[in-house]
């Protein structure tokens, strides 16, 4: 549940770095949509006993949410984590 809440709340944070869509959303907002879609999908899969779908959903969420988003946050100049690590 906290993942879904975080995914929804991040949609209200405007993009400050990079391209913007509708003058508000950035490319990283796509990962918020991935989270909002994947968490319920994985939850329903595990309730059905479909461990393979649940596992694949969680792996995709981890790769998209932690590795890809984290890499962009650290490597994009102007972002807080970039400043924290490289300045």
Explained architecture:
- With 87 residues, the chain is mainly alpha-helical.
- The chain has one domain.
- The protein is built from 4 helices and no strands.
- The model has no long low-confidence stretch (mean pLDDT 88).
Architecture blueprint of SSEs:
Elements lengths: L1 H9 L18 H20 L2 H25 L4 H7 L1
Helix pairs in contact: 1-2, 2-3
Nutshell version of this structure?
It is built from four helices and no strands. By secondary structure, the chain is mainly α.
- Based on secondary structure, the structural category is mainly alpha
Low-confidence stretches: none
Give the helix proportion (percent range).
Answer: over 70%
- Give the radius of gyration: 15 Å
Order of helices and strands: HHHH
What portion of residues belong to β-strands? Answer: under 5%
**N- to C-terminal distance:** 35 Å
What is the general shape? elongated
Total number of strands: 0
User: Roughly what is the average pLDDT, rounded to an integer?
Assistant: 88
Largest sheet: none
Number of helices: 4
Count of all domains: 1
Keywords: Membrane, Transmembrane, Transmembrane helix
Transmembrane segments: 27-46, 58-78
Organism: Aquirufa antheringensis
Protein name: DUF2306 domain-containing protein
Features:
87 residues; mainly alpha; 4 helices
